[in-house]
Amino acid sequence: MPAQNVLNSDRSNHHANMTPPTTEGNANIPASPTLVVPNRVNLSVVHAIEAALGGRDRVSWMVENTLRPDAEVMMYLSQTRAAGFLCSIDRSTPDDLVKLVRDRQVQGRHVVLLSGRPGNQPAALTDVPGKILHFADGSKLSALPVYVGMYRNELTGGITDSAPCDRTVVQFMPELKAGPELGARIRGAWLEAAADCAADHPALATTLPHAIIDSITRHPEAMVIDGVDDSPLSYRRLLIYALIMADKLHKRVSNRRLGIILPPGKSAAIANLACLLAGITPVNIDYTISAEDFRYRIEQTGINRFITEVRFTHKQQLFAWPAPRDLIHIDRELADVSTTSVKIRELLIRLGKTEWLTGRLQSRPGRPDDEAALLFTSGTGGIAKGCPYSHRMLLSAVMQLSSRLPLSAGQRVLSAMPLYHPTGLLTGLLLPLLLGLDIVTYPDTQTPRRLCELAHNYGTALTAFTPVQTAAVLKAAKPDTFAAMRYFLTAGEKLPTDLAERAAGEHKLTLYECYAPVESALPVAISAPSPAAAPGTPYIIPAGLPGTVGTPLPGVAVRISDLNRPEQSLPPTNTGLIWIRGATVIPAYLKNRPDATTCIRGKWFCTGDVGKLSDEGLLTISGRKARFSKINDTLVPHVAAEDALYKVLGLPTDDGVRRLAIVGVPNPRGAGEILVLLSTVHKNVVPQDIITARYALLNARYPAAWAPTHIMPVSSIPTLPNGSLDYPLCYRGTCRQLGIPTD
Questions:
Q1: Which residue range forms the structural domain that includes residue 636?
Q2: Are 644 and 547 spatial neighbours (Cβ–Cβ below 8 Å)?
Q3: CATH number, domain at 444?
């Protein structure tokens, strides 16, 4: 058996100066010996765990030979002649490893699994690879998960996975019973603890305007650059104009919310910041929605005044604009600002009196849990829902995203995704303002050539688009367009594999797919390139693989439940409903909608999406719950069936054009459902077309249940403004065509 029963050597003594970790949950430590599994360790953590478990005589250390802890930990173990053993999980059977653990437990010792540093992404949840974590699955071993969280006190990159850090938390979780999926359950416990610890970060105990003012004070020369004419506006001047505009709003707006109907740009940045400074909630309005949808959002929010620009009202003539008396034109308001007014505020800002200026504008001091922004869902479920974001949620979103995607002051962001999209608001405005990044704005995603020029000329490091917009941008790009781009995010819809491959092949560009429901101010997960292996170990914990949306961002917990019984949790590797939890997840919809009782339970929110987690924590999205049909006892995922049909019919997927859509409708001839394929490529459908599709799927080894019963030719397939399928409209239209009654 490839195991050694000693961890001794003749290395010299070494001591490191370390701040002792804070230990929590000691009451969860069982009296009987158990398997203790921390998500990561260093020497100070080893000391804390050893002390909490009752001292050296109560502990036996378990070390994987090819993933040893760092030199300090190994030196401490050898100096103290610690009890323990080296093992090789790759070469040992699970039964052999379980026996090694049980032998030590019989001696009255807790067995602590120690991990080294594999190849990993920034602010990763754990250093323990899934292969190592799952050796005790199905055995008689119980396990005590230990969450080790490392934090820096500042907002930027406030969550880390290594020293130096300002604070380390060692939290003992409740013991998990022996049984199947033990490793997955350990990971789930770590996720929940990480979410709770991130929510308690001290940097969140403030408000968004206070944090923005602090950032602008530190980065006054950072700029907002208008991509239309390349004109710059320094952050200091941005704050001055926002303060002037906040004064005007304070005098003219009595409502606690204000609509903003503007594309990304200097005016949108000033308007959003002015609202925050005046204690007013900015509500960025989708200017592509119908008049009916706009009226509904006004009714839900109670908004009666709106900020826009004269030139934008002329451009968006099809929008259902409110009455002129309800519009505040920011360009007119700022056109007559006197030089004296600007200089006075600039002087007060330089003297550190900004908080005094803003204090006059608010009836009471802002609080972290006050409403700071409000966005609406796209209406995928049939009706748009209002999602209020608090200051704490938005600050946490910036902290968590900057921990996973590190950027530094002076780098530039290309902001073209509208601010009514949570990813656009986060990456295009709040993240750069709070990190001191330059913002290069452009008001139109339909001008890909200019967007490419801006990305190249300004060397932008971060941007975000929908997959449809990304396809157009890549088509206009040159080989060196994205030479400086570090993070090109796609959100709003599933990223087609062909598009990702084309970006990598033609432009050497990695697309980071985001899973970003509006109910979270932060993308739940981002798929990223897998890191390189760390020196001395073959282990890599992947950050993203094809078909997945990556691992949850730091501070986001995910669990899986049964599709039809949401109260019943499933092992994370099973397919089911996806629930999320964390400081960035809304606690309730606007007006506490009745449907919230089914999707918000305690700290958990049900996304309505179906998916699973892999052994390494990678999240796969199979589609919306509504986009699954049961055909002859087989659960058919519509999105997967559509992807299969695109492949077997030889249709392109990288140009952003939707050609197919699967709709599940009641069977008009009996019980159950049938699949109808909406198609823009079929014109005059004959029975042979259905047979051809069926056998093409079967020949490609797809399930027979995925074959459509009907093919319905359509001129176009309805989509929502974010590019996702308008499934309720497709469903109603299909039922109407087939004569099937709907509720």
A1: 632-738
A2: no
A3: 3.40.50.12780
Cβ atoms of residues 694 and 702 within 8 Å: no
* CB-side neighbour CA atoms (13 Å) of 169: 20
Number of domains making up the chain: 4
Q: Is the per-residue pLDDT at 3 higher than 50?
A: no
Final residue of a structural domain among 526, 561, 591 = 526
In this structure, the answer to whether residues 168 and 224 fall within a common structural domain is no
Structure tokens at 688: 């042979």
Q: What is the Cα–Cα distance from 654 to 667, expressed in whole angstroms?
A: 33
pLDDT at 349: 83
Residues 190 and 215 in one domain: no
Residues 118 and 21 both lie in one domain: yes
Determine the Cα–Cα distance for residues 98 and 96; give it in Å rounded to an integer: 6
Rounded Cα–Cα distance for residues 466 and 588 (Å): 26
What is the average pLDDT across 659-670? Answer: 87
The string of DSSP codes covering 382-399 is SS--EEEEEHHHHHHHHH
> Which DSSP state fits 15?
-
Contacts of residue 1, Cβ cutoff 8 Å, sequence gap at least 6: 92, 96
Last residue of a domain, one of 526, 542, 574: 526
- The strand pairing partners of 145, in sequence order, are 37
Which phi-psi region, left, alpha or beta, contains residue 292 (left: φ > 0; alpha: ψ -120 to 50)?
Answer: alpha
Q: Closest Cα partner for 5 from 57, 62, 53?
A: 62
The CATH code of the domain that includes 687 is 3.30.300.30
Residue 531 belongs to some domain of the structure: no
Q: How far apart are CA 443 and CA 627, in angstroms?
A: 33
**244, containing H or E segment:** helix 235-252
Residue 672, helix vs strand vs coil: coil
Token code pair at residue 199: 């929510």
Query: Over the stretch 452-481, which tens digit does the pLDDT of each residue have?
Result: 999 999 999 999 999 999 999 999 999 999
CB 560 within 8 A of CB 546: no
Encoding tokens for residue 492? 């709003």
Residue 411's SS3 state is coil
